[in-house]
Amino acid sequence: MDEASNGKLSPFENELSDEQEATVTAGLQQGEVEVGSWEIIWGTEGDYPEETWTFTIPYLVEGAVGVTINATLDIRIGGSFYSGNSGLNGVEPFLNAEGNMEINVQVSSGTINDGDKLEVSLFVNSLLFSNPTQDAGLTFKWGSEDSIGKVTVAMPLVDIKIKEASVTSGLVYFPIILDSGFGGEMWSLSSGNFNLQGTPLTLSPIATPLESGVEVTFVWEMPEGTDSGTYSTEFILSPQSGLEISASKNHNIDVDDENGGGGSYYPSSEPLRDSGSEISVEIDIEFQGDIIEKKIEISFDSAMSQWMRWGMDNIGNTSLDSNSWWKNLNSYSDSVATSHRNNGKVDDDELLALTSHITGSSSDMRSFMQNGLSLDIESIIGINPVDLGPTEYQIDMGGTRSFAAEKITIKIETSYSVVDNERQLVIENFIRNPSNNYWDEVNINLEIKTSMLAGLGPVSAENIDFEHRRWIFLESINIKQNDIDVDENFRIEFLPSGNMAFSPLISAMLCVFALCIAIGMGLFLTRNRSSAPALISVSSLGGLSLVIYVLGMPMQIVLAIVASSVLLVFPISLVSPKLGKDRSGINKLPRIECPSCGTSNAVESKVRPLRIECAGCEVMLRIEE
Predict the structure, then answer these.
(1) CA gap 526, 560 in Å, rounded
(2) What's the CA gap between 478 and 480, in Å, rounded?
(3) Contact at 8 Å (CB) between 267 and 169?
(4) Contact at 8 Å (CB) between 404 and 305?
(5) Is the confidence at residue 31, as pLDDT, over 90?
(6) Residue 330: what are its φ and ψ, rounded to 5°?
(7) How many CA atoms lie within 13 A of 572 on its CB side?
(8) What contacts 565, CB < 8 A, 6 or more positions away?
């Protein structure tokens, strides 16, 4: 069950998303309160048996020990109406803490037609709380995997028909028709597998729409040495946990007959894209300070690859559906040879037609990415495509140009200018509409490198892990994440300042220069004192600045730590202990005692008269003889 405001029922567990709730409080007066009403337009005709339908909904009692409830469930099936009460044999149930409330409704046998509405409504008639507080209430929850509200029914859902297999070029195709009023969703929102001789087939199936449902074709690549004979197959479809619908068939397969069982396979209608495909995005970025150069590779396989291969092979096809994106390429029909159309593979002129289309106009490229692939290209590139510099597109069909589920890679090389002190988007969530089920897995592999005279500046990221490193000759950011959820909102950006002092090379030189000054000042200020405290402080702060420099912390912090090492030399030198009597290391030199402080000072010269500075009070002493 979906949120009550939408009133949606669904046979597919994959449609569960956000949790919904409704609360009935202790202030309920006489009369009924509607908790929710959910409905679905049924698309599969058939008979349903006489049976007890069970309605289940999670609940939570708040502000009370428990509650006695009187609730009613109404069910409408087309023109038929049924109702049930929460009580069993006239005894109203007592709900405590949390759990699931169930209501059983006896439904008579009948027939449901295509377009009939199935509606379920829950009403609360009365509540009696035990030891309630002022905020006592009963909350019903549904709509998520943790809180599943459901009604268990026996209704015609789908008819499965396994067609005869066909053999071509070492491949065996097993078409299966799912006749259902739920169209392509019966396949895209369910989980299913096809077993050949008890072993699941691993190649991506091909899904094409039908007027009354969807056709799913599984492909078996015959191993070398496969013998002709009878092969058993089984198809299992699972719209939700605990529900498996299966069909089986034995096929006579002649491996030597390329037309065995019905000839070669090629879908007559545009394949569906909503079977879920894996998309991988690899981006190499070179940041030169005022220009960003990018090399982008967008790779995908499975249903999206099949859709793109079929579409290019049908450029100029006048029988395309009115909402097919490929009708945008009808203007290129004259550039495609007639013999190349609908021949089961992508030819050079067809590939050139699509490449020219997306290269010729940024709006055409955006249309292909958004409406064709359901990708937000601006989130991948980082800016509006209109602002791009010279851009080159290339489409790599992978290992084959035939109609298949093999990987396709779209390569983009481009560049654009950078404005100082303006945030630069690296990448953000680029799945345009996760609910259409075009994509089920996202992988990202991204690397940014700078020159020695260009710094990235502060980097900010949301919901994505990255590694930021700074070396003397470059600065880099690396992102490598797999299995990202398609509806995950992530973003990473940086703020270039344009200040060369923050570049990897110049900043490293400034740090080394400042640390050398700090060491020199420390040695100078501690001529007559211990220099160890000053040198240890400078070394510690220098080591800290090196660590945060390499870890890519903002250069303002790095330079601030280095500057602090210079400033701290002064107070540390002043409080450093004075040197002992054996500073010279020569004990036999004549010594003179200071009349002011009594410090014994070594006389290292025989020149007379001689002036020396007292090591204790720094008073000048004059020696006459």
Answers:
(1) 24
(2) 7
(3) no
(4) yes
(5) no
(6) -60, -30
(7) 21
(8) 514, 515, 518, 537, 538, 541, 542, 545
The count of other CB atoms within 10 Å of the CB of residue 158 is 21
Kindly indicate whether the domain formed by 159-253 is annotated with CATH number 2.60.40.10. Answer: yes
The tokens describing 221, both together, are 């690549």
How does pLDDT run across 511-568, given as a tens digit for each residue?
999 999 999 988 888 887 888 888 899 999 999 999 999 999 888 899 899 999 889 8
Helix axes 532-550, 504-525, angle to 10 degrees: 170
Q: Quick check: 203 and 170 in contact, CB under 8 A?
A: no
Handedness of CA 454, 458, 464, 468 (dihedral sign): positive
Q: Which two tokens stand for residue 541?
A: 């702060």
Structural contact between residues 147 and 108, judged by C-beta atoms closer than 8 angstroms: no
Structure-token pair, residue 131: 């030891």
Which amino acid makes up residue 17? S
CA distance 281 to 480: 10
φ/ψ of 434, rounded to 5, equals -60, -25
DSSP three-state, residue 335: helix
Q: Is 176 helix (H, G, I), strand (E, B) or coil?
A: strand
3-state DSSP assignment of residue 272: coil
Sheet holding 475-484, edge to edge: 392-396, 408-417, 291-300, 277-287, 439-450, 475-484, 467-470
Helix axes 532-550, 555-575, angle to 10 degrees: 170
pLDDT in tens, 121-148: 999 998 899 998 888 999 999 988 889 9
Q: Output the six-digit token pair for 435.
A: 């609910």
- The whole-model pTM stands at 0.77
CA distance 92 to 456: 68
Chain length of the chain: 625
Q: Which residues contact 285 (CB under 8 A, 6 or more apart)?
A: 292, 293, 294, 295, 426, 446, 447, 448, 449
Position 192, amino acid: G
